[in-house]
Write a sequence for this structure.
């Protein structure tokens, strides 16, 4: 590239000199109607010399100062756009990762909560069952106690019944006969009667 | 421009020394003056356009960047990767011609691209550059291009002179195309403008009919705006094509 640029500059310089010489030495034989072909006029050939100088200066200013400036601005812009795109892309990746993490965390939390809930429910079930069993056991023992009491009361009542029956029989017999019966005999008869009637 | 009854349409191309004797001694006519004006215009456009150097360009900066990228793409697409080295030259050439063509469209101004001496000097410069680059890049193989590949050796005596002639005629066609276009456009402007003056001599009827040539000149201005940029483009793209041949291995 550098070689070519140098070649361009050398070529331009050579042309500036060459064309100027050519133009200065051109014959003025075409003096016709057109002022452009009046090469005898020094102003016609002079504009070639001046044009070459102006063109060369124009080329130098453009290639040294103006065009590199434009190139720098364009390069900076493309650089900046690429950088910004890169930043945006990485930000998007971060955001995607954060979203994925969030979803994972939510899923984990849900699973944990589910497990916790299950555990609590199980415990409650177990506690309730135990309580129910305790209550049942207590009730059962209470029922058994009560039944025992009832049986005892009943037995007591029944044993008292025989005495009452014997007393009543004694009293009845006394009233009816006016004789006080033998207590032993009455008790024996009541005993056998109650056994007959199968009253416990 | 129009002098009395005889109107000389070529008078607009005459050169006059500026600054009197000094201009005459230095051969400095209005033509180099307009060249300087054109160059300053382009440089000012680029300078003020690119001065903000903003990441998001304003209108003027966007225009300057479009100009840069247009020529840069043209140079690189046409010439190839080596085109980047020639880009400043193509840019200079294109905008020198374009600014010259457009400045010449202003009333009372002068078109330096309407002078064959100027256009031929530029075309000859391009020609010399292509020859120098060709010899530098290709060495003596450059001369092999005058014999087309695959052609019968018996045709060589016919083909080689034709190829050499067509090669040598490049600067001629390049310079005459631009020169003739600019001269023709400005002569047409002058002719139709002179019709208006001639019609003005016929009283009221002439005044009414003079609208015709004026309208034509307005249309011609649009055409010349197109021709101005087109000729600059043609000159630049042909330079690129010649340079592509020069750098081709």
């Amino acid at each position: 590239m550098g070689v070519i640029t140098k070649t361009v500059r050398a070529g331009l310089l050579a042309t500036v000199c060459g064309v100027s010489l050519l133009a200065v030495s051109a014959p003025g034989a075409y003096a016709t109607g057109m002022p452009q072909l009046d090469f005898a006029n020094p102003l016609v050939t002079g504009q070639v010399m001046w044009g070459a100088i102006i063109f060369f200066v124009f080329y130098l200013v453009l290639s040294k100062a103006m065009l590199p400036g434009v190139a720098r601005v364009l390069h900076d812009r493309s650089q900046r756009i690429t950088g910004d795109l890169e930043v945006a892309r990485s930000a998007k990746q971060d955001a995607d990762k954060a979203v994925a993490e969030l979803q994972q965390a939510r899923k984990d939390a849900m699973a944990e909560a589910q497990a916790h809930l299950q555990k609590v429910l199980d415990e409650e079930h177990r506690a309730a069952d135990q309580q129910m069993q305790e209550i049942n056991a207590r009730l059962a023992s209470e029922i058994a106690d009560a039944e025992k009491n009832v049986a005892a009361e009943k037995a007591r009542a029944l044993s008292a019944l025989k005495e009452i029956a014997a007393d009543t029989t004694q009293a009845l017999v006394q009233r009816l006969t006016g004789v006080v019966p033998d207590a032993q005999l009455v008790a024996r008869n009541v005993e056998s009667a109650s056994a007959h009637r199968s009253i416990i | 421009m129009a002098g009395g009854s005889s109107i000389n349409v070529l008078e607009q191309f005459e050169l006059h020394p500026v600054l009197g004797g000094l201009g005459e001694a230095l051969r400095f006519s209005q033509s180099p003056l307009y060249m300087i004006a054109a160059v300053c215009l382009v440089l000012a456009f680029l300078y003020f356009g690119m001065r903000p150097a903003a990441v998001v360009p304003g209108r003027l900066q966007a225009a300057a960047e479009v100009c840069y990228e247009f020529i840069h793409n043209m140079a690189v697409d046409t010439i190839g990767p080596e085109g980047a080295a020639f880009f400043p030259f193509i840019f200079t050439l294109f905008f020198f011609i374009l600014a010259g063509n457009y400045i010449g469209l202003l009333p009372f101004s002068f078109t330096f691209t309407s002078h064959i001496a100027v256009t031929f000097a530029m075309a000859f410069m391009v020609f010399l550059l292509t020859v120098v680059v060709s010899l530098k890049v290709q060495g003596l193989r450059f001369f092999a291009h005058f014999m087309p590949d695959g052609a019968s050796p018996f045709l060589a005596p016919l083909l080689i002179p034709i190829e050499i002639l067509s090669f040598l005629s490049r600067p001629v066609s390049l310079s005459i195309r631009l020169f003739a276009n600019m001269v023709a456009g400005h002569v047409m402007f002058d002719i139709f403008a002179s019709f208006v003056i001639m019609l003005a001599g016929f009283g009221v009827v002439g005044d009414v009919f003079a609208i015709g040539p004026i309208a034509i000149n307005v249309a011609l201005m649009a055409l010349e705006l197109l021709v101005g940029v087109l000729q600059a483009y043609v000159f630049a793209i042909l330079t690129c094509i010649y340079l592509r041949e020069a750098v081709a291995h």
